[in-house]
C-alpha cells in the first residue's frame, strides 16, 4: 500500500526559532507554543514585508499618471502659440491610443519631465522615471523605425509628432547626468539631434499639405499670419548680439575663400562650392533665428535652424568641421534662451557652448581669425559661463547686463577693475580667479545676503 505524503509542517510567518528548526509554528507568540514547551529564548518574528502592488498594476497606475500629466501639464511645454493648445491637449492623446509608437514616445517624454521637474505621484525617486523613459523610448523607437518605410498621408501627422518628441527626449536625456550612465557625449548627441531634426523636416516637407490640414489647421493659419507680420516687424537685437553676428559673417566669408588650390581642379572647385553653400546657408539660418526670436511673435524659432541650414550641414558636423562647430556654438546660445521656457531644452544649449567653446578656443583658427575668440567669449557670457581667458572692458559690460536680472539693484555696485582681465593677459586659458569666485558664489550671495546693502 502506498504511503501518504506527509503534510507541510511549516508556516510562512512563523518565529525565527521554528523557521531555524524547520517546524510548524502556531504563530501565537512570542513565545509561541514550541518555544514555550522547549524553554527556548529569542522567540521573535520577522517584520511583515511591505505590501506591493503586482507589477502589472503598478505599471497601469504609472501610465495613468503619465497620461494625466500630459493632458494637464506636459503638453504646454510644446505650445508655440495659443492655437497649439487644442490639438496638443486633445488630439495627441487620441492619436497615441491608436499608435503604440506615439503612445510610448509620449510616455517617455512625460516620464523625463517628472524625473527632471518633479511633482511625481507614484514614486518619489526621479531615477525611476528616467529609467522608465528609457524603456518607453526604446520601445517607441523600434516601432517607429518599422513604420518609416510606410509613411502615408494617414499616419504622417503621427509620425511627424513622434519625430519631434524624439528630439525633446534626446535633449532631455542629456540633462540626466548623475541619474543614469551615458555612452554619448554632448557632441555625439548633437549629431544625433541634428539627424532627428532633419528627419522631422523631411516628413514636414513631403507631407506639408497633410500636416497643415485637420487638427493642425488652426495652428498653421496662425503661424502663417505671424510669419507675414514678422516680415514687417523690424528685428530688435541687443548690440552685443548684432556685433557677434557681424563678426560671424566676416569669419564665414574668410572661411569660404579658396584654399590655395588650382582653380582649374574640378574636384577642388566642387568642394569649395559645397563649403560655400553650407557655410552661407547656415549663417543665414542662424541669423534668421536670432531675428525671429527678437520679435517675440512665437516661441521656439531656434528649433528651425537645422531645417533652414540644410541637409549638407550634417556631414560637415560629423567630420568635426571647425566652422560647422563654430556655427553650432551660436545655435547653442539660441537653445539656452529657449531652455528658460522649455524644460526639455533646459541646459542643453549651455552644455553645447561649454563643450564646443573649449575645443574651438584651442583651434588653429582661433589665432588666425579675427573675431573668433571674441565670439567664443560672447557665447559663453550669453549662456552664463565664465569666459575663457578673462574679459575685456566691453565684455565686462556684456557680463554685467547678463547678470543684472539675477542681482537686481545690486548689479551696479560690483567693483569693476579688480576682476577685469585682458585676453592677452590670459592666453593660456587660465580663468581670472576673482571672476571665477564672483560667478561661482553669485547665487549664494544673492540668497544669503542683502546685496542692496553690500
UniProtKB/TrEMBL annotation:
Gene3D superfamilies: Zn(2)-C6 fungal-type DNA-binding domain. The keyword Nucleus applies. InterPro entries: Sterol_Uptake_Regulator (IPR053157), Zn2-C6_fun-type_DNA-bd_sf (IPR036864), Zn2Cys6_DnaBD (IPR001138). Residues 14-45 form the Zn(2)-C6 fungal-type domain. Pfam families: Zn_clus. Keywords: Nucleus. One of its GO terms (molecular function) is zinc ion binding. PANTHER family: STEROL UPTAKE CONTROL PROTEIN 2 (PTHR47784), TRANSCRIPTION FACTOR, PUTATIVE (AFU_ORTHOLOGUE AFUA_6G14150)-RELATED (PTHR47784:SF10). This is Zn(2)-C6 fungal-type domain-containing protein. It comes from Fusarium vanettenii (strain ATCC MYA-4622 / CBS 123669 / FGSC 9596 / NRRL 45880 / 77-13-4).
Amino acid at each position: 500500500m502506498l504511503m501518504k505524503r506527509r503534510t507541510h509542517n511549516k508556516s510562512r510567518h512563523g518565529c525565527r526559532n521554528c523557521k531555524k528548526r524547520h517546524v510548524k509554528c502556531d504563530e501565537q507568540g512570542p513565545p509561541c507554543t514550541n518555544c514555550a514547551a522547549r524553554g527556548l529564548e529569542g522567540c521573535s518574528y520577522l517584520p511583515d514585508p511591505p505590501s506591493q502592488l503586482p507589477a502589472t498594476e503598478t505599471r497601469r497606475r504609472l501610465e495613468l499618471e503619465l497620461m494625466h500629466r500630459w493632458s494637464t501639464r506636459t503638453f504646454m511645454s510644446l505650445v508655440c502659440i495659443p492655437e497649439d493648445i487644442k490639438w496638443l491637449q486633445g488630439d495627441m492623446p487620441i492619436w497615441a491610443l491608436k499608435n503604440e509608437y506615439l503612445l510610448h514616445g509620449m510616455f517617455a517624454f512625460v516620464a523625463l519631465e517628472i524625473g527632471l521637474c518633479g511633482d511625481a505621484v507614484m514614486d518619489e525617486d526621479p531615477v525611476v522615471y528616467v529609467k522608465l523613459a528609457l524603456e518607453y523610448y526604446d520601445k517607441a523607437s523600434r516601432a517607429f523605425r518599422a513604420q518609416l518605410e510606410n509613411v502615408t498621408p494617414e499616419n504622417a501627422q503621427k509620425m511627424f509628432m513622434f519625430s519631434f518628441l524624439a528630439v525633446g527626449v534626446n535633449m532631455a536625456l542629456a540633462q540626466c547626468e548623475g541619474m543614469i550612465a551615458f555612452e554619448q557625449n554632448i557632441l555625439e548627441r548633437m549629431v544625433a539631434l541634428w539627424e532627428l531634426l532633419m528627419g522631422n523636416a523631411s516628413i514636414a516637407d513631403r507631407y506639408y499639405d497633410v500636416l497643415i490640414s485637420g487638427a493642425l489647421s488652426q495652428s498653421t493659419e496662425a503661424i502663417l499670419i505671424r510669419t507675414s507680420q514678422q516680415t514687417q516687424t523690424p528685428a530688435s537685437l541687443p548690440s552685443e548680439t548684432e556685433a557677434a553676428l557681424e563678426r560671424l559673417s566676416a569669419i564665414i566669408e574668410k572661411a569660404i575663400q579658396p584654399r590655395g588650390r588650382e582653380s582649374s581642379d574640378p574636384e577642388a572647385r566642387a568642394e569649395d562650392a559645397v563649403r560655400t553653400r553650407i557655410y552661407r546657408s547656415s549663417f543665414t539660418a542662424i541669423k534668421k533665428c536670432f531675428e525671429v526670436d527678437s520679435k517675440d511673435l512665437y516661441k521656439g524659432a531656434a528649433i528651425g535652424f537645422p531645417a533652414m541650414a540644410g541637409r549638407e550641414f550634417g556631414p560637415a558636423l560629423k567630420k568635426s568641421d571647425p566652422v560647422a562647430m563654430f556655427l553650432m556654438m551660436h545655435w547653442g546660445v539660441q537653445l539656452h534662451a529657449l531652455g528658460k521656457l522649455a524644460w526639455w531644452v533646459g541646459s542643453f544649449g549651455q552644455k553645447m557652448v561649454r563643450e564646443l567653446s573649449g575645443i574651438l578656443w584651442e583651434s588653429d583658427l582661433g589665432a588666425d581669425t579675427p573675431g573668433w575668440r571674441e565670439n567664443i567669449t560672447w557665447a559663453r557670457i550669453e549662456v552664463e559661463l565664465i569666459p575663457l581667458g578673462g574679459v575685456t572692458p566691453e565684455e565686462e559690460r556684456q557680463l554685467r547686463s547678463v547678470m543684472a536680472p539675477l542681482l537686481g539693484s545690486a548689479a551696479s555696485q560690483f567693483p569693476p577693475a579688480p576682476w577685469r582681465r585682458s585676453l592677452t593677459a590670459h592666453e593660456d586659458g587660465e580663468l581670472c580667479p576673482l571672476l571665477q569666485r564672483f560667478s561661482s558664489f553669485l547665487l549664494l550671495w544673492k540668497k544669503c545676503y542683502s546685496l542692496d546693502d553690500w
